[in-house]
Amino acid sequence: MLSSTLGVALAFAATKLLLHLLTNGQYGYFRDELYFLACGDHLDWGYVDHAPLSPLVAKVGRLLFGDSLHAIRFLPALAGAAKVLLTGLMARELGGGRFAVALACLCVLVAPIYLGLDTIFSMNVFEPLFWMGCAYVAILAVKRGQPKLWIWFGVLAGLGLQNKHSMLFFGFALVAGLLLTGQRRAFRQKWIWIAGAIALAIFLPNLLWQYRHGWPTLEFLNNVSRTHKNVELAPPAFLWQQAVMLLPTTALVWVAGLWFFFFDTAGKRHRLLGWAYLVLLGVMIALKAKNYYVAPVYPMLFAAGGVLWEKCRPRWVKIALPAVVLVTGAIFAPLALPALPPESYVRYQAALGINVPKTEVHHQGKLPQLFGDMFGWPELVGTVAKVYSALPAEERGKAAILAGNYGEAGAIDFFGPRYGLPRAISRHNSYFLWGPRNYNGEVMIVLQASREYLGRVCASVEEAAVQYHPYGMAEENRAIHVCRGLKFRLKGSWPFLKHFQ
Predict the structure, then answer these.
(1) What are phi and psi of 296, to 5 degrees?
(2) Beta bridge partners of 399
(3) What Å distances lie between residue 69 and 29, 33, 53, 121, 127, CA to CA?
(4) Would you list the domain boundaries of the chain?
(5) 3 falls in which pLDDT band (50, 70, 90)?
(6) What is the pTM of this model?
C-alpha cells in the first residue's frame, strides 16, 4: 500500500501525528486552551471572540479523553495529520503521482506555522480542514464535471463558519475565483446556490446569537482594530512573513503551485484556486490581518506545486528539493515545537539568530508568545490560592476572584478546584457575558489591576502577593491585590465594565 499515492499520504500523516504526540506534552497548557475549556463549560451558539464549534469539540474531547495535556491536544494532533492527508489527496486529484504527493505532504509536515498551531487546541487547528475541504470539493467538481458536489462545499463552509468566522473570507475568495474564470458557469446551475443556502442554514444559529447579543464579535473586532492590538505589517513584510512561517525553502513549492494554476496546461482548469489565493492574500493585507490568517490556504498550493515539480526533467531536482526542504525543516522545527527545555530554546534561537515574528504588540517574554503563554498558569493559581486561604474565614465565602483576562480566568477555573477556589469572574470577552454571579464586591482578589486604580474604587487595598515566572509572558508578572469595600455595586455596574479586545 505504501507504494501508492494514498499510502504515501497516509505515511506522512502518520509521521505528523506521531511527531505531535511525542512533543505536545513538554510545556504546559496554552492561554487559549484554558479559555476554550472554560467556554466548553458554557456551551452556547456563540461567543464574543470566536464561533461555537471549537468549545463543543473541546467539551466532547474532554469527556472522551480527559483533561490531561496529551488528552486536550490529541484532537489537534489528529487534525494536523488529517491536513497532511488532505494535501496528498489534492495533489493526487490534480494529477500528481507519488513524488508530487510526497513533496506536498513534506512541505505541510515541516512548515513551522503548522507545527506550532497543531500543537495546541484552538479553532485554528481545525480551520485548514474546512478551507481545504472546500478546495478539494472544488477540484473534484471541476475535474469530474459533477456540479452536485458543490452541495458538500456548502456543508463544509457552514461548519467552517461555525468553527471560525474567517471562513467568510475564504468563501468570498473562492466565489471570486469562480467569477474570474470560466467556472463562473457553475452559477447558472442550482447546485452552488443550494450549497450557499446550506452554508447559511448551518451558520444561522450563530447569526441569531450575534443579533440577540448586540453583535459582540463585530464590537470585538472593531476594538482590536481601533486600539492597534495586533502587529500591522506593510505588504512587503506581510509577504516575507508568509515565506518565513511556511519555511523559506518551501516557497519553491507553493510559488510553483501558483504557476501551476495560472500557466500549466493541466492546472489552468483549476485556476479558480489560484485566483482565490490572490484575492484572499490581498484582502488580508488590506485588513492588516495577522500573518498566519492566510496559513490555512497553503496546502492547496503545496499540492499544486508538487504536481508541477514532478514534471521536472532533471532527476537530481527530485532528490535535491525534498532534501533541502527536509534539512531546513529539521533546523527550524525546534523553534515551532515545544521540544526543547526553555533555557535550551532561548540558546538555540540565539544561535540561529532568528526571532519568531510577533502577532500582538504588547506581548513580551523570553519565549515567543506561543510558548510563553504555556508557562506560569499553575503557579499563578497556586499563588492566588495562598491569598485566598489567608483571608479570614468569614471573608472567604464571599470573596470573588476577579481576573484581568480570559487566560487568568481560565486558569483559575481549570486548576482552581484542586485548591477549593471558586470560579473566576472577568470582564474580558466571553467571561463578561457570564457575569459577576452573586458577588457584590465586598471582598475581591484582583489580578491585572494597579494599586492606584484600585485605591480609587475600593475602601481598602492590600498587595497580597506577586506573581512571577521567568518564562511566562511579562504582562502576567504582576502584583495580586485584595480589594475590600468596592465603592459601587458590582452587579449593577457590570455592563459598564465590559472589555472586548
Answers:
(1) -65, -15
(2) 443
(3) 7, 10, 20, 10, 21
(4) 5-336, 377-497
(5) low
(6) 0.95
